[in-house]
Automatic annotation (TrEMBL):
The keyword Protein transport applies. GO terms for biological process: protein transport to vacuole involved in ubiquitin-dependent protein catabolic process via the multivesicular body sorting pathway. The keyword Protein transport applies. Keywords: Endosome, Protein transport, Transport. This is Vacuolar protein sorting-associated protein 28 homolog. It comes from Achlya hypogyna. GO terms for molecular function: protein-containing complex binding. One of its GO terms (cellular component) is ESCRT I complex.
Length: 249
């Protein structure tokens, strides 16, 4: 039996990594791609057509009108603006609001003002009261100092009440014809010196202002509304004449 072969005591060859081999290995490895350089964000275009551009411009106008009215109401409450300046600016904003809101509704871009406020997170209670609910400046609804004499204010109030009453008797029903007359009657009534703020006739006219302002300009009052408005106007006129005969009552 032959003995097993003797194992050599010579160690296995050593693998020596030289600088040359490392350089070759590094050069044969594919470099990782560099991350792309950040690009500058361009302007975001909201519209593709002229119609869409007009829609966004009208929406931005409506937003600006509401915010401006809120600041104007705050300035008036804090006595930072005179009643005359406030009335002029507020009347202009109300007109701009009605024009813009009507255009958006007719184009189908505005479902309701409440949805607009919710979507754009607008919290403007003073502006909504002025633009949406009343539609007239605060100086029309509440007593303010008038530069004209009390005799002129009384005469204008009587004239506006009679004119509005005649319109109702002539069966004028359109909101855009009745609302201006009612607003003028309310404006002259609140300028009369000594008229108590709880005067029932003024409160009734204010309620009708809210009703008319919630309607469209092309809407018409029905028979019941015409009859009720005529009744309330007659009572307001009678109460006003009673106040003139006995202002200290």
């Amino acid at each position: 039996m032959n003995p097993p072969p003797a194992y050599s005591n010579v160690p296995p060859p050593a693998y020596v990594y030289t600088s040359a081999s490392i350089h070759i290995q590094a050069s044969t490895t594919a470099p990782s791609p560099a991350p792309p350089a950040p690009t500058k964000a361009g302007e975001v275009k909201l519209w593709d057509t002229a119609k869409e551009r007009r829609m966004y411009e009208d929406l931005s106008d409506l937003y600006a009108i509401i915010k401006t009215t809120e600041h104007l109401e705050t300035a008036y409450v804090r006595d930072a603006i005179s009643p005359d300046e406030y009335t002029e600016a507020c009347t202009k904003l109300i007109s701009q609001y009605k024009t813009t809101e009507t255009a958006l509704r007719n184009a189908g871009h505005l479902v309701s003002i409440d949805s607009f406020l919710t979507h754009y997170r607008l919290d403007c209670p003073r502006a909504i009261e002025r633009l949406v609910r009343l539609g007239v400046p605060a100086t029309v609804v509440h007593n303010t100092t008038s530069s004209s004499s009390d005799t002129v204010n009384v005469a204008q109030t009587v004239q506006h009440c009679i004119t509005l009453s005649d319109y109702l008797k002539l069966n004028v029903r359109a909101v855009d014809e009745i609302q201006p007359l009612l607003s003028e009657c309310m404006a002259s009534l609140t300028k009369v010196h000594g008229l108590p703020p709880t005067f029932e006739g003024r409160l009734k006219l204010e309620q009708w202002l809210r009703v008319l302002n919630a309607m469209r300009a092309s809407d018409e009052l029905d028979d019941d509304q015409i009859r009720q408005m005529s009744f309330d106007l007659e009572r307001a006129y009678t109460g006003f004449m009673a106040f003139l005969n006995n202002p200290n009552q």
